[in-house]
């Protein structure tokens, strides 16, 4: 079971909040860029044949002699795309398990709120850039989605930017995008910049404890799990000081680029407490309510 | 600076592999990590194709080279040399005569010797000889400074003459064939030249500190015409200034009066003092408040009458023996009580339950087996150097009949051919003198030496008895004869005691002037009194005369002064440790500095 029952209960009482008006095909509970059928008045426009004449404002017609139609705010569903990084680097330090839980948590949150949820993994199988998982609009879709998430294993190494950009800009209803990744890819900056086209979302930056506070010692050749590239490192206080500075710059850069793209950013230490931390962070950022 | 092991400098070549190690790239352990994205900003990329890198002179390398240099230099054993009196084998002869007690001469000699001993190395052997009345070796051929120091520290000035000549001969006897032996004589030189001067292969460390001294130069006691006792006291002033000196007389430790004598500079004063004492009493004279430079001669002790007379039992009516017993000082043939000694003149046999002089009994004492008789024989041999026979000429003694005996374990004193005539031995722990001939059938009683021989035999037999007193100069041994089952204990003038082994025949540590008491301790804890001995300060030593002993280099000995080798090793070892500590500190990136940086 990907998500504990207790967590699911809490998630069912919450829902995702859209920061921008969404463009979607289906009515929902999020404010749309379209005018629709809600009770919130928006503006007037001239009547054209075909309009529902129940919306003609008769008072204005009597006073001005012009047929004007009342327009109301449309409420549409929020398309939520959850992008799970399953590259080989995620296979260390419980990052993959944590990332699956977080992806599932966001998906469950969307389904519970009646949003249209689509889960992706990058890279996809057999050399493809990504793989699309089950989509759904209701909690009835959760079992299939959960099963799909549980079957995902870290595989291969790939560039992060191309698939993220593709998924962020795909379709006309871009909605919200949740990227769950360690961003350990040379093109992580480009990937985050590509999220500008989304209607918001969040970057869940999952890092292992060993990456946050390395315990390596001695003269080492560090081999990149994805590229195989080796870097000679002699650990010392000075080396660790430089590493911590690089890590801080990395996290700060990622947060800046995410916010510039209109996304929230949460640095998540991998581990069993990650779900609670993320929920608390998102609530603090009013991304869930 | 010279090197004892210059070949060790070859180890400096270890610097080459050390430098090479610094030029080799270290082989790193491969560790797979999720990504090297962040690490690439930390480590310098290294090409693995070339195993060498350019040598960088780091503080660590320089320190390690310094450590190696210091270590190599230490192993090469750098040294410097100093002139020293210590040679390959040095025999230190210490004069412990009475004059060495003046003004701390012996203490100064010990200090100088101990300073030299601090320089003992493996190249030096040291022996220590004490030149007392009876010279002895305190440490022989020793490389162990602790042993030599202990021997030197134990030296004490005595009240007697030091036999420096005998000590030098003893020191020469320690000469080692494989290394030159030199003598260092720590002495004031005494008064008279040594027979062997100039002393070859020797040097004198002359100690001649001097100070004013007043000493007891004579202390005796004799009966007065009125029947009482008078003590005769003579004090000598060895300083130039006249002095008034008070002397306290004590009998058995109780004050008996104080007399004051006026002493001219370099002069003497005498006084006769009536003393209320009896035979066996210990009479002491002690100078008061002299504050002079020699304290050993400030006190003198004597025993009145040499102790009570001892009774001798005679088994026959021999007029010769009876007259001899009465004439012998300290012995009497009459009186009440059991005799302490027995003279058994003929008869069947003798019961030996006390010291006995046994003369030709039909059955000799145990240990002597008669085999036959020999007639008309004369003395042909008497034991040379035997104190009992000292000054006694028995060459004219003729014997009409004597037993031929088999006496293993007995000491023959006089023989006629192979036939022993006089034997000394012990029976059941008692001293026994045995004559194998009847003295009435010889001309021995009419010999001039007969009374002397008889008196000495009685003295020897009574030697272990209670109350006997011998008075000699300090350093003269005390003869002991512990009865069976007892252990001798000697009480010294300073009230300290020494327990001796049961078989001890003498006690030689009598350098301290004064009264020595011997007790024989039994297994049940009781004791019986033994002999007393008075050891007097030799007044010749009171003057503290000093002189330079003539010495000469040993034939064939090198003329240059002996050199003492002092190694720098301890300093270099310290330097190595210091450099290693600094290297460790630098190698661990100067933790102190890092803390400062962190705090900043």
Describe the structure.
Chain A is α/β, with parallel strands linked by helices and about 290 residues long. Chain A is built from nine helices and ten strands. Chain A is about 35% helix and about 30% strand. Chain A is elongated and about 90 Å long. With about 600 residues, chain B is an alpha/beta fold. In chain B, the strands form nine sheets. Chain B has an eight-stranded mixed sheet, covered by helices on one side. In chain B, a hairpin with a 2-residue loop joins strand 24 (about 410-415) and strand 25 (about 420-425). In chain B, helix 2 runs antiparallel to helix 8 (about 570-585), helix 3 runs antiparallel to helix 4 (about 145-155) and helix 6 (about 320-325) crosses helix 7 (about 450-460). The longest helix of chain B has 19 residues, at about 570-585. Chain B is elongated and about 130 Å long. The chains are: A alpha/beta (about 290), B alpha/beta (about 600). The interface of A and B includes residues 219, 222, 223, 225 and 231 of A. Strand 8 (about 220-225) of chain A pairs parallel with strand 2 (about 30-35) of chain B.
Brief overview:
By secondary structure, chain A is α/β, with parallel strands linked by helices.
Structural class of chain B: alpha/beta
Indicate the structural class of chain A. alpha/beta
Sheet with the most strands, sense and barrel status of chain A: 6 strands, mixed
Q: Mind telling me the C-alpha Rg of chain A?
A: 23 Å
The averaged pLDDT of chain B comes out at 85
Q: State the distance separating the first and last CA atoms of chain B.
A: 49 Å
DSSP helix fraction of chain B? 10-25%
**Spatial strand arrangement across the major sheet of chain B:** 18-17-19-20-26-25-24-22
Strand content of chain A: 25-35%
Count of discrete alpha- or pi-helical segments spanning 4 or more residues of chain B: 9
């Amino acid at each position: 079971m990907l998500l504990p029952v207790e967590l699911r209960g809490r998630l069912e009482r919450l829902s995702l909040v859209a920061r921008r008006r969404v463009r979607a095909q289906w009515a929902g509970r999020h404010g749309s860029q379209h005018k629709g059928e809600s009770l919130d008045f928006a503006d007037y426009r001239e009547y054209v044949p075909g309009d529902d004449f129940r919306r003609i404002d008769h008072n204005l017609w009597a006073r001005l002699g012009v047929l004007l139609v009342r327009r109301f705010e449309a409420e549409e569903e929020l398309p939520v795309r959850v992008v799970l990084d399953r590259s080989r680097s995620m296979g260390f330090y419980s990052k993959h398990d944590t990332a699956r839980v977080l992806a599932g948590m966001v998906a469950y949150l969307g389904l519970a709120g009646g949003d249209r949820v689509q889960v992706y993994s990058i890279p996809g199988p057999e050399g493809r850039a990504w793989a699309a998982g089950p989509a759904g609009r209701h909690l009835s879709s959760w079992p299939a989605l959960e099963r799909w998430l549980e079957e995902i294993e870290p595989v291969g190494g790939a560039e992060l930017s191309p698939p993220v950009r593709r998924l962020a800009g795909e379709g006309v209803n871009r909605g919200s995008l949740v990227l769950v990744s360690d961003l350990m890819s040379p093109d992580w900056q480009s990937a985050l910049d590509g999220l500008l086209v989304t209607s918001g979302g969040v970057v869940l930056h999952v890092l292992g404890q060993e990456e946050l506070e390395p315990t390596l010692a001695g003269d080492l050749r560090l081999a990149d799990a994805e590229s195989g590239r080796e870097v000679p490192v002699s650990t010392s206080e000075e080396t660790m000081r430089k590493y911590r500075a690089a890590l801080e710059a990395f996290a700060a850069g990622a947060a800046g680029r995410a916010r510039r793209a209109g996304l929230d950013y949460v640095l998540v230490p991998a581990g069993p407490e990650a779900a609670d931390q993320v929920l608390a962070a998102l609530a603090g950022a009013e991304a869930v309510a | 600076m010279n090197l004892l092991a210059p070949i060790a400098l070859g180890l400096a070549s270890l610097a080459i592999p050390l430098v090479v190690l610094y030029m080799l790239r270290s082989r790193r352990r491969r560790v797979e990590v999720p990504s090297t994205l962040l690490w690439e900003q930390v480590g310098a990329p290294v090409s693995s194709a070339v195993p060498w890198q350019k040598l960088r002179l780091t503080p660590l390398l320089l320190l390690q080279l310094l450590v190696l240099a210091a270590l190599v230099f230490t192993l090469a054993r750098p040294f410097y040399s100093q002139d020293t009196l210590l040679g390959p084998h040095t025999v230190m002869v210490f004069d412990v005569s009475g004059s060495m007690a003046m003004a701390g001469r012996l203490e100064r000699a010990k200090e100088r010797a101990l300073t030299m001993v601090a320089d003992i190395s493996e190249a030096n052997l040291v022996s220590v000889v004490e030149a007392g009345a009876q010279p002895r070796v305190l440490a022989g051929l020793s490389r162990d400074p602790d042993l030599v120091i202990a021997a030197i520290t134990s030296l004490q000035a005595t009240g007697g003459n030091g036999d420096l000549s005998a000590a030098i001969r003893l020191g020469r006897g320690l000469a080692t064939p494989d290394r030159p032996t030199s003598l260092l004589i720590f002495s004031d030189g005494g008064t008279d030249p040594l027979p062997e001067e100039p002393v070859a292969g020797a040097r004198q460390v002359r100690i001649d500190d001097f100070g004013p001294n007043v000493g007891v130069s004579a202390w005796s006691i004799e009966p007065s015409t009125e029947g009482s006792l008078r003590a005769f006291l003579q004090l000598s002033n060895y300083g130039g200034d006249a002095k008034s000196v008070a002397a306290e007389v004590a009998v058995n430790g109780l004050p008996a009066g104080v007399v004051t004598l006026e002493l001219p500079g370099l002069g003497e004063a005498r006084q006769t003092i009536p003393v209320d004492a009896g035979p066996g009493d210990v009479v002491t004279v002690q100078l008061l408040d002299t504050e002079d430079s020699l304290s050993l001669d400030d006190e003198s002790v004597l025993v009145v009458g040499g102790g009570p007379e001892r009774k001798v039992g005679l088994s026959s009516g021999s007029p010769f023996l009876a007259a001899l017993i009465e004439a012998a000082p300290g012995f009497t043939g009459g009186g009440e009580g059991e005799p302490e000694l027995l003279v058994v003149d003929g008869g069947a046999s003798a019961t030996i339950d006390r010291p006995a002089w046994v003369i030709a009994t039909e059955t000799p004492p145990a240990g002597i087996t008669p085999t036959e008789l020999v007639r008309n024989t004369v003395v042909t041999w008497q034991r040379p150097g035997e104190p009992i026979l000292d000054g006694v000429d028995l060459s004219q003694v003729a014997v009409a009949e004597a037993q031929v005996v088999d006496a293993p374990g007995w000491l023959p004193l006089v023989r006629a051919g192979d036939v022993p005539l006089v034997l000394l031995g012990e029976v059941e722990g008692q001293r026994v003198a045995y004559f194998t001939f009847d003295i009435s059938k010889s001309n021995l009683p009419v010999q001039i030496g007969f009374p002397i021989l008889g008196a000495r035999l009685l003295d020897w037999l009574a030697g272990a008895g209670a109350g006997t007193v011998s008075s000699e100069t300090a350093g003269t041994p005390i003869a002991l004869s512990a009865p069976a089952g007892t252990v001798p204990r000697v009480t010294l003038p300073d009230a300290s005691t020494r327990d001796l082994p049961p078989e001890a025949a003498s006690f030689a540590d009598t350098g301290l002037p004064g009264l020595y008491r011997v007790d024989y301790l039994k297994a049940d804890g009781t004791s019986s009194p033994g002999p007393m001995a008075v050891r007097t300060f030799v007044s010749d030593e009171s003057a503290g005369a000093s002189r330079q002993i003539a010495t000469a280099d040993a034939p064939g000995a090198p003329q240059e002064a002996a050199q003492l080798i002092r190694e720098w090793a301890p300093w270099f070892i310290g330097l190595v440790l210091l450099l290693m500590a600094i290297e460790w500190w630098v190698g661990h990136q100067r933790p102190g500095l890092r803390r400062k940086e962190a705090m900043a």
